[in-house]
Write a structure and sequence with these properties.
The protein has a five-stranded mixed beta sheet. It contains seven helices and eight strands.
Length: 221
């Protein structure tokens, strides 16, 4: 790798679950974003998920102050809502690299350990957990351990989805909680893969990446 690129990466590189999921999707797009600050094209952000996020977090904070679980998840998760936890988890690695993550919430279990609680919105009841969510939870678990918290190797994903209704009567939402096993070793593996890719010249186009195909077709890069 060119020395100027190495210095850029060493000084500026902050990994996150979203960037590591990009690495899993396409090493070339990951390299371009992290080294050259060339990001995939994106369309406008949908405002409804952002509004839902604010509503859910406000709902949880009201019950946190009462030291009890909100009715939507009461009996579906252990422990209670944690207080005093950081908004952002951040760990400095080596050579100037750092990794950060921002969980939606935390549970404090009866034995004092901390577990991740993350909120997701869906159009219907989920029957599985996407691999991107698994990676995200692995990174959060790794960060909790690295920051010295006593934690547990599972995270809880609360999925919120609407039911059929007459809109003038209001739209009911249901919540299904799925827990996933988390692993620091999986997190370390993907972080090591990121270092390896960033230490190379630009990777070859990935055959399954639509963005790589677009760049090749348009002679963009």
């Amino acid at each position: 790798m060119h020395s100027k690129v190495r210095r850029f990466v060493a000084m500026k590189c902050k990994l996150s679950p979203s960037s590591l999921n990009l690495l899993e999707d396409c090493p070339r797009c990951f390299w371009l974003q992290m080294v050259k600050n060339i990001k995939r094209p994106s369309g406008p952000w949908a405002s409804i998920p952002l509004k839902m996020d604010r509503i859910i977090k406000g709902y949880f904070n009201r019950y946190r102050s009462q030291n009890k679980l909100p009715p939507m998840i009461d009996g579906k998760v252990p422990g209670r809502l944690a207080v005093g936890m950081p908004n952002m988890l951040n760990v400095r690695l080596y050579n100037g690299f750092s990794i950060c993550g921002k969980p939606d919430d935390y549970l404090k279990l009866d034995d004092g350990r901390i577990a991740i609680l993350d909120h997701k919105t869906k159009s219907k009841e989920p029957d599985s957990v996407h691999r991107a969510y698994q990676l995200q939870m692995d990174i959060y678990y790794y960060l909790l351990e690295a920051m010295g918290y006593k934690t547990v190797d599972r995270a809880y994903l609360a999925f919120y989805y609407p039911g059929d209704c007459d809109l003038h009567d209001g739209m009911p939402f249901s919540c299904k909680v799925i827990y996933v096993k988390t692993s620091s070793s999986r997190a370390v593996k993907i972080i090591s893969k990121a270092f390896k890719v960033l230490g190379l010249e630009i990777p070859d186009p990935y055959e399954n990446c639509e963005y790589c195909k677009w760049k090749n077709d348009t002679n963009f890069f």
